[in-house]
Write a structure and sequence with these properties.
This protein has helices spanning 2-15, 21-38, 45-52, 108-128, 143-147, 161-177, and strands at residues 66-72, 76-82, 87-92, 132-135, 151-156, 182-187. It is built from 6 helices and 6 strands. Helix 1 (2-15) packs antiparallel against helix 2 (21-38) and helix 4 (108-128) packs parallel to helix 6. It is of the alpha/beta class. A 6-stranded mixed β-sheet has the order 4-1-2-3-5-6, with helices on both faces. The protein is globular, with a radius of gyration of 17 Å.
Amino acid sequence: TFAPFVAWQEALKLATKTDDVVQVIDKAEDVLAGAAKGGKGFANTEEFDTLKGSKGVGTNAVSNPKEINIHGKINSELDEVDLVNKILYEDKSAANLYMDNPDFPQTEAQWAYKQIYKKGANRINALQQDEFTLSGDGNLPNVESLKGIKDYVFRIDTDTPELRAAVQKELDNLKLQFPDYNFGVIYGGKK
């Protein structure tokens, strides 16, 4: 479903930056095959981390705008917008969930509700308002093209089975509230 799309898009981005394009494409096909067999997510985190960690050379022909601020009745921000592949990316850190003595202890479910559902819904509501302006550094997209992007990917720096379950529940809740959007997640690292 959506995870293979994200895997392929990530692989294509890497393929434009690497001196060994064939290896990256082969690896992407392996990841896609594993995702198709396993259902949700990638074949496994190790495979995707290997793909993501490929050393690239050169630069992207198009630079993705990062840290875009939305100003309107609802204010929000976007971490990154891939204008070529039409994907909104949001980076999240769940590392504090697994500290020995966190300042604000919370469960994976509490974290996912706040960081995935509430903040994701706020960003989409900000994008759906009738009038808003954008600010940020670099080449900003126009408002109408940004409103047309319906693929939303969370990039989470931590990966545990409990976190995956909690995040999937909130992705499902987002899909119920915003059926025109496709939601995905890329996990990185382990507890």
